[in-house]
Amino acid sequence: MTDQSATTAPTKNLFSLFPFAVFLSIFLGTGIVLTMQGVEFAFYQLPASIAIIPAIIIAIFMGRQPISEQIGQFINGAGHPNIITMCFIYLLAGAFAVVAKATGSVDASVQLGLSLFPDFLLLPGLFLVAAFISTAMGTSMGTIAAIAPIALGLVEASDVDSSVIAGVIISGAIFGDNLSIISDTTIASTRSQGAKMKDKFKVNFTFAVPAAILCIILFASMGVTMPTIAASETNIIGLLPYIAILILALLGVNVFIVLVIGIVLAAGVGMWQTGYALSTWISDINQGFANMQDLFILALFIGGLSELIKRQGGLAALTDLVERITRRIYRNNNKRAAGFGIACLAFICNFFTANNTVSIIVTGETAKELAEDGALSPAHSASILDIFACINQGLLPYGAQALLLGTTLQLSPLAVVSHAYYPMILLFVASFAFWRVTKK
Predict the structure, then answer these.
(1) Over the chain, what HEC string results?
(2) How many CA atoms lie within 13 A of 330 on its CB side?
(3) How far apart are CA 96 and CA 146, in angstroms?
């Protein structure tokens, strides 16, 4: 069965993007107003899944076809296999994060990591711990939530500048959020670009690791010392779920199987060591699902809205506009133009949504068209999409990561991102590396 939209090219209509502008205006405008009123976590008071509803209604009424047909198109977009796959993976990832936290696996990783480094290397050590946990968990917010309380204790026990500690943590958290195979940004970027996760990981690795090394050198050169954590407090067995997930994921095992095994292993470790109850396990899995509810609904809504705008010619017009601008900048180099366009799309969209996963979902279809036109491999396009969305997310003072760290360490969000050196370094490393790869 052939989709009509695949055989009939839509008329290019840039005005069809107006519903997206409405979504961003409502979401961003509400955040700005609440920020001016002094509301904490202002940009997250209005869930994105609610802010997008007026945009969906407008998109439906903007279509020239009957409303019933417009609604049908919306449902088809929401039910796209890529969207549904992402939604189920989000649920499993949420469940794993809660179970791993409840059974002590997260604390074990933090304690072990900090105990391995001498006091004069604890700043780069803290970065490595945050990078490892975020890579294993696939979430920057989960990483920050796990490490921030410990970091607060370190700050209180020494005279270390808390903004530097915040910058180290957010740097490590963004490293894993971008690179992890089970990160929602990786899931969204690979699914939207049709890339294999391990292929995207290999490409992303060549950008992320050099940036991380430079970041470690920078943190080590700052000469900051902190009190050490006793190695006897470390729970080695608690690391097993993370180690298993990393190994299985790198071996190319299906992400559904990887996450299910991680959930079972984490529960098994908890039952063996602390008497973690079966009823508690079930409750924690349910809580993990609930934590992903907003993202789950938003993914469905964006899938439906994207399909409407695609049918109305908005994505075709946007793709054409970005292509013309990038080709004007990079004449006679379609691959470089495609990469530049994808990077700009992800970076700019994330600036308005303050959510790297959302920005990837929004720009995914357009990025894929740019990549195909510029003969850019799916792994490269997925990597660029993910990298530049995460770079912007790590530097946003109104992003969830900066807000959470600011609240925990009693800092302004601007102070948090002022020392977020990894996203800054990654911006230059990724740009330079891609420039060299596409050099004729």
Answers:
(1) CCCHHHHCCCCCCHHHHHHHHHHHHHHHHHHHHHHHCCCCCHHHCCCHHHHCHHHHHHHHHHCCCCHHHHHHHHHHHHCCHHHHHHHHHHHHHHHHHHHHHHCCHHHHHHHHHHHCCCHHHHHHHHHHHHHHHHHHHCCHHHHHHHHHHHHHHHHHCCCCCHHHHHHHHHHHHHHHHHHCCCCHHHHHHHHHHCCCHHHHHHHHHHHHHHHHHHHHHHHHHCCCCCCCCCHHHCCHHHHHHHHHHHHHHHCCCCHHHHHHHHHHHHHHHHHHHHCCCHHHHHHHHHHHHHHCHHHHHHHHHHHHHHHHHHHCCHHHHHHHHHHHHHHHHCCCCHHHHHHHHHHHHHHHHHHHHCCHHHHHHHHHHHHHHHHHHCCCCHHHHHHHHHHHHHHHHHHCCCCHHHHHHHHHHCCCHHHHHHCCHHHHHHHHHHHHHHHHHCCC
(2) 17
(3) 14
Whole-angstrom CA distances from 282 to 99, 106, 269 are 9, 19, 15
d(CA 142, CA 276): 21
List the domain boundaries for the chain.
14-437
Instruction: Please give the span between the terminal C-alpha atoms of the chain, in angstroms, as a whole number.
Output: 41
Q: Which residue has the higher pLDDT, 73 or 375?
A: 73
pLDDT at 423 over 90: yes
Asked if residues 182 and 259 have their Cβ atoms less than 8 Å apart, the reply is yes
List, as own/partner pairs, every contact residues 324-329 make where C-beta atoms lie below 8 angstroms and the sequence separation is at least 24, other chains included: 326/370
Share of residues in the chain with pLDDT > 70 (%): 85
Q: What whole-number distance in Å separates Cα of residue 53 and Cα of residue 305?
A: 9
pLDDT-derived band at 207, boundaries 50, 70, 90: very high
When mean pLDDT is compared across 51-55, 171-175, 406-410, the lowest value belongs to 406-410
Q: Which residues contact 286 (CB under 8 A, 6 or more apart)?
A: none
Taking residues 313-338, report their average pLDDT: 74
Residues 262, 384: Cα–Cα separation, whole Å:
28
Closest CA to 274 of 134, 136, 101: 101
